[in-house]
Write a structure and sequence with these properties.
The chain contains 5 helices and 11 strands. The protein is of the alpha+beta class and about 190 residues long. The protein has a 6-stranded antiparallel beta sheet with strand order 1-2-8-11-10-9.
C-alpha cells in the first residue's frame, strides 16, 4: 500500500490558504508541480551508482534529458531526477533498482518530500524573474541546460529554464511565502 503525499497547495496542505494565487494572473501563470515524481540522491557513490545504472550525467550545475526523466546535477554527488507524470515508469523503475541495490549508492535526499516545485510561464515571466532573482535568467544569457542555485523570492532555490518557462524548487516549508512573494511583486510577503 502506497502512502498518498499531501502537497503544500493541495487540500489539507500547509499552503492551501494561498492556493487561490496559483494559475494565470497578470500575464504570469504559476502552477504547482509538487505532486510530480522526483528522486534525489546525495553523497559518496551517488554519481557512480547512476552511471553504472546507465544514466548519462551532465556536468555539475547542468541538466540533461534521459529516457523518462530530466537529470539535474547540483554537484558532483548531488543529483535530482525529475519524472514525467505522464510516463512515471522509468523513474519508478530506477528508484526501485536503487532501493534494492547494495551500497555504495549515496543516500536519498528526499527531494520528493522536502522540495516544492513551481512552474512559471507567460508574457510577464521575464519581468517576474528579474524582480525575484538576482541571477540574469533571460534567454541568451542563461543557457537552457544551466541550473541556478540562488535566492529566488527571498529563499534559497534551484531555478531551471525549459522552453519559454521557468521551474523553481525550494524548501517546501516556504511554499506560502514564496507564492505570496511571486504574486505581490517580489517584495516581502
Amino acid at each position: 500500500m502506497q502512502a498518498t503525499q499531501t502537497c503544500p497547495f493541495s487540500p489539507g496542505g500547509a499552503a492551501e490558504d494561498v492556493a487561490p494565487l496559483l494559475g494565470q494572473r497578470d500575464d504570469l501563470s504559476v502552477s504547482d508541480r509538487s505532486h510530480w515524481p522526483r528522486f534525489g540522491l546525495k553523497g559518496s557513490g551517488s554519481a557512480d551508482w547512476l552511471a553504472d545504472a546507465g544514466v548519462a550525467l551532465p556536468a555539475a550545475n547542468r541538466l540533461s534529458l534521459s529516457s523518462g526523466f530530466t537529470i539535474l546535477r547540483l554537484g558532483p554527488n548531488d543529483i535530482t531526477l525529475l519524472g514525467d507524470p505522464a510516463a512515471p515508469e522509468a523513474l519508478a523503475a530506477l528508484c526501485a533498482r536503487w532501493e534494492a541495490a547494495p551500497g555504495p549508492k549515496g543516500y536519498s535526499s528526499w527531494r520528493e518530500e522536502a522540495w516544492a516545485w513551481l512552474h512559471l510561464d507567460g508574457r510577464a515571466l521575464e519581468d517576474a524573474l528579474a524582480r525575484l532573482c538576482a541571477v540574469d535568467l533571460r534567454p541568451g544569457r542563461f543557457v537552457p541546460e544551466a541550473i541556478a542555485q540562488t535566492r529566488f523570492a527571498q529563499v534559497d532555490a534551484v531555478v531551471i529554464r525549459r522552453g519559454g518557462a521557468a521551474e523553481v524548487f525550494f524548501d517546501i516549508a516556504a511554499s506560502a511565502a514564496v507564492l505570496r512573494t511571486i504574486r505581490h511583486g517580489g517584495g516581502h510577503p
